Amino acid sequence: MAGVAVAAVLLFAVAPALLSDFRLNLLAKFICFAIVAAGIGLAWGRGGMLTLGQGVFFGLGAYIMAMHLKIADAANRGDSVPDLMKIAGLRELPAYWVPFTSPVVAILAILVLPGVLALVLGLGVFKRKVKGAYFAILSQALAAAFAVLLVGQPTIGGSNGLNNFRSFFGFSLSDPANRRMLYFIAAAVLIVVVLLVRQLMFSRYGELLVAVRDQEERVRFLGYDPANVKVVAYVAAAFFAGIAGALFVPIVGIISPNDVGVMPSIMFLIGVAIGGRTTLLGPVVGALAVTWAQTSLSEQFPSGWTYAQGLLFIAVVGFFPAGLAGIAALRRRRVVEQPAGEVTDKELEPVKEPV
């Protein structure tokens, strides 16, 4: 809890005082990725599910929010359809756009649809005992198929996606005060998500999830269904990703297939791995650090950042599988195991006389 309290102080007091409006908006974008990372930490770090398809749930929440914002902007201008449909010659909304005219329906869809999709997929996959690399490949293929599907839909922008949002539930997005409000909303959601993940991790369910990760068959013999245990973590991660996607849209101002495909899903995973997937705050810190480094270093080294990111991921996975948080934990454990002044075994070894 101390770490969460420190994070809250940094997000709500230090960052707004020190950062400009532009940098604060960038931090809000990074926080959206950190929300996704917190869910991946639960599913992958505690449950052993290598989720390479979180871009699907992120994109689902993002596109629902984007569709509602485009409809609201059109209504404010007195139009019946968004600007991209007017350019295409459409005079009425497609049937699947109509429900998102209502802000209540849009919010409920953001909260429900990613979780429902994850529930259906999870039951179909885990009940058939698909796991490990097969699950990772399947989830990655799902993200690729979702991106291709979006590209082929001109009514939601095709490969260009949806952009140019003017308002957010009645608040102008051009007002700096409202953009700061979005930052505080994102920061508050991150803190709530971390607390929820903490509750799941350190509850009896969290212990059962770790047991399923380490000894699935033994858990089955004890009378539990490992598939149901995995599904809960998978649905929770999808739920968090959908909320993050919905916040991403008004903060960044655009959503396209490039933001929800295979590469974004891998990016989410890299941050979690570097930060430390088995810890509570490791995935969050890792996601914030990686996205900040990508934005900062890619400005100076546009072609070199991708290689640096790959090398960093390989180094962490190969030499520090517990991530940066694992290195810190190892240092603390060594300090506890060897108090100051204690004589080590090496010091007790007899000194060999030269021959």
Give the SSE layout:
Layout: H1 2-18, H2 21-46, H3 54-77, H4 83-87, H5 103-126, H6 133-151, E1 162-163, E2 167-168, E3 171-172, H7 176-201, H8 204-214, H9 216-221, H10 226-252, E4 254-255, H11 262-275, H12 282-300, H13 305-319, H14 323-337, H15 345-348
Antiparallel strand pairs: 1-4, 2-3
Give a summary of the structure in a few sentences.
Helices cover 71% and strands 2% of the residues. It is mainly α and 355 residues long. It has one domain.
Describe this structure in words.
Helices cover 71% and strands 2% of the residues. A two-stranded antiparallel ribbon has the order 1-4. The protein has a two-stranded antiparallel sheet with strand order 2-3. It has one domain (2-258). The chain has 355 residues and is mostly helical.
Structural class per helix/strand content? mainly alpha
Note the gap between the termini.
Answer: 59 Å
On the 0-100 scale, what is the average pLDDT?
Answer: 85
Q: What is the spatial order of strands in the main beta sheet? A: 1-4
How large is the radius of gyration?
Answer: 23 Å
H/E element order: HHHHHHEEEHHHHEHHHHH
Total of DSSP H or I helical runs spanning 4+ residues: 15
- The helical percent reads over 70%
Q: Which strand-content bin applies to the residues?
A: under 5%
What does the largest sheet look like?
2 strands, antiparallel
Overall tally of domains: 1
Strand runs, count:
4
Q: In terms of per-residue confidence, which ranges show pLDDT below 50 for 5 or more consecutive residues?
A: 343-355
Name the shape in a single word: globular
Subcellular location: Cell membrane
Pfam families: BPD_transp_2 (PF02653)
Keywords: Cell membrane, Membrane, Transmembrane, Transmembrane helix
InterPro entries: ABC_transp_permease, ABC_transptr_urea_perm_UrtC, LivM-like
